[in-house]
Design brief:
- It is a single chain.
- A hairpin with a 3-residue loop joins β4 and β5.
- It is globular and about 30 Å long.
- With 71 residues, the chain is of the alpha+beta class.
- The chain has a five-stranded mixed sheet.
């Protein structure tokens, strides 16, 4: 039986694994998987997936968000 892990535990673990300095988030910048970003509203997060249509999936400490990039 699978056990669901709370997003805050996953987010904190992913952020701690990411290396390098957090890059400020801007819709104009390009991001890659495993980039550490610092969002003005959501805080620090890690890019989990680069999606089609200039979107990225980012896991923050308490939430998973779809954001735009390269606009």
């Amino acid at each position: 039986k699978e056990v669901a892990i709370p997003i805050d535990q996953i987010g904190a673990a992913e952020i701690n694994k990411a290396s390098g300095r957090a890059k400020g988030y801007s819709t104009k910048d390009a991001f890659e998987e495993l980039d550490l970003i610092d969002h003005s509203k959501f805080g620090k997060g890690v890019v989990q997936k680069v999606m089609s249509g200039n979107k990225i999936e980012v896991i923050f400490e308490t939430d998973l968000k779809i954001l735009v990039h390269q606009r």
